[in-house]
Amino acid sequence: MKKIGICLILTVAILMITLVLGSPLMAAQEPEKETAPQSAAPAQAAAPGQNEPAASGQPSGGKVRVPVDSSQVIPKGPQWLGAPIMPNGTKLKEEGGQYSTEYNLPYKEVLAWYQEALKNYPDARYRDWKEEMYIEDQGGSKWHAIKISKTDGPNKTIVTIRKDNWTWILATLVIRFLGVFIVLLVLWVGLNISAAIMKRFIKSEQKKQAAPAHA
Fold this sequence. Notes:
Blueprint: H1 2-27, E1 79-80, E2 83-84, E3 90-95, E4 98-103, H2 107-117, E5 124-128, E6 132-137, E7 143-149, E8 157-163, H3 166-214
Antiparallel strand pairs: 1-2, 3-4, 4-8, 5-6, 6-7, 7-8
């Protein structure tokens, strides 16, 4: 009975360690989505030459549940690599894999417009950081992130769209691989410690049983 009790204690301890290490890694993959008030920021027609209109095929209502490119579900209007561009802004630059636009509007109004524009795109994830709202694409679109600044003033907001890149893709894969490797390594170490304790316990029991025979 003592052997069974020790085995159960060691098994539970190893499982607890694995869960403690694995939970933060899993939680980091699914950031919380901010619930912001929806502002009435109507989408107007794109200015001539400001990028091609979005492709047709937007669903009549509800979120899309299958893998889809964002260009198929965003409202008709200006876009860059399938990411929507809010109208009535001033283009700052388009280089180095990013597209920046400045708006004479408060941050919350710009955020509300993007939430409405991306409401039918199921692979957009919102990361509410101190200096910006980071909208990350976790689907198959060509853009990687839409950054909406918070620190440009009460009536000024800069939106930057970043292109998807292999550096980010490989970095994400490496981080996930290392996370799984660390959990497995801790589990392996725990099992080895458990085995060493059990061997020592068994040898001690064998010596106690062999002692009366030699007496």
